[in-house]
């Protein structure tokens, strides 16, 4: 199967995006610093986000820092609502984004609700972090992979429709193929 790179941020970046992808910006307003994709048949999502480089955070701690920030945004900071299961450094030789100072992949879980609902779903979050201190930017790539969906969640209709869900390999391919074409993206 031939895979082609998908333009991101107006073509300033590109990456191979998995099959069955819906560009969420065609459905609703997305912040300028994000590209958001949803799986057409599951409740999975991918987010490529440009955030401020956190120079006070050591490289080896940065993925966990951003994971906890996402947990805060998801209102999942209470004890037992989030857990980091692994953090690994990615070899720069395996990445297309050669401008990075370091890259990391974190896997963890968060208990989150969608759209301020009471119902909470257990989501495995795979977080890729590419650090670009020369551009004062951290690039976060989040793969949200629901493991347990509450019957009371608006996502419950997606349960049982797992037609070719995205895999961790799809996420890793996105990370590995992320390429910078225009440094002007960073200002």
TrEMBL record:
Keyword field contains Transport: yes
Protein name, as recorded: Ran guanine nucleotide release factor
The keyword rRNA processing appears for this protein: no
Keyword list, A-Z: Guanine-nucleotide releasing factor, Protein transport, Transport
Gene3D superfamilies reported in the protein's UniProt record: Mog1/PsbP, alpha/beta/alpha sandwich
InterPro entries named in the record: Mog1, Mog1/PsbP_a/b/a-sand
Organism of origin: Amphilophus citrinellus
GO BP terms: heart contraction; protein import into nucleus; regulation of membrane depolarization
Pfam families to which the protein is assigned, alphabetical: Mog1 (PF04603)
């Amino acid at each position: 199967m031939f895979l082609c790179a998908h333009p991101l941020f107006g073509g300033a970046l590109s990456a191979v995006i998995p099959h069955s992808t819906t560009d969420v910006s065609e459905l609703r307003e997305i912040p300028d610093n994000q590209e958001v994709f949803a799986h057409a048949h599951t409740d999975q999502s991918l987010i490529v986000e440009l955030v401020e480089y956190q120079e006070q955070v050591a490289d080896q701690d940065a993925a966990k820092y951003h994971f906890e920030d996402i947990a805060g945004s998801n209102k999942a900071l209470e004890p037992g609502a989030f857990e980091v299961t692994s953090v690994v450094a990615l070899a720069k030789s395996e990445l297309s984004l050669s401008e990075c100072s370091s890259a990391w992949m974190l896997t963890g879980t968060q208990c989150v609700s969608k759209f301020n609902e009471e119902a909470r779903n257990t989501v495995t979050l795979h977080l890729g972090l590419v650090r670009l201190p020369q551009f004062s930017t951290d690039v976060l790539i989040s793969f949200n992979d629901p493991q347990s969906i509450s019957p009371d969640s608006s996502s419950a209709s997606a349960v049982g429709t797992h037609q070719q869900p995205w895999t961790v390999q799809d996420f890793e391919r996105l990370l590995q193929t992320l390429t910078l074409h225009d440094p002007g993206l960073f200002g």
